[in-house]
Amino acid sequence: MGVVMDPRFGLGLIFFYMMTGALIAFVGMFDRHPIFKFKLPWWLGGIAIGAGMHIMLVLLAHDQIALMLQQMEWGTLSSPWWAIFDGMVLGVIMAFFEKKLAGQGNLPLK
């Protein structure tokens, strides 16, 4: 049938993705990495933040994600660790739209 999901988990996911978007927006303010001084393109920040946040999500909610994927019967893609790849894709999508709407930052940091 369907997955019975705790409403608190769904609300937590909404806040999780809002926080992911906010972090990607903050990283988008930098043209160069402030410590290592290499050029920081928008897509690299999106991939890094998306992957990092989804690693945290899988570590914190592994059982809930595994239950949802098991109920969906996706076969070989039923591992919760695939969420990290999803996070990279979503991070790039968020970074793309944030760059198009707000632009790439140019902070006067030296």
Task: Describe the protein's architecture and organization.
This protein is an all-alpha fold and 110 residues long. The protein has a domain at 41-99. It is built from four helices and no strands. It has helices at 7-27, 42-60, 62-72, 82-102. It starts with 6 loop residues before the first helix and ends in an 8-residue tail after the last helix.
Q: What topology does this entry show?
A:
Layout: H1 7-27, H2 42-60, H3 62-72, H4 82-102
Helix pairs in contact: 1-2, 1-4, 2-4
Helix-strand makeup class? mainly alpha
Helix proportion of residues, in percent? Answer: 55-70%
Rg estimate, integer Å: 16 Å
What profile does the largest beta sheet have? none
Principal-axes shape call? elongated
Q: What is the arithmetic mean of pLDDT?
A: 85
User: Topology as H/E string?
Assistant: HHHH
Give a brief outline of the structure.
By secondary structure, the chain is mostly helical. It is built from four helices and no strands.
Features:
110 residues; mainly alpha
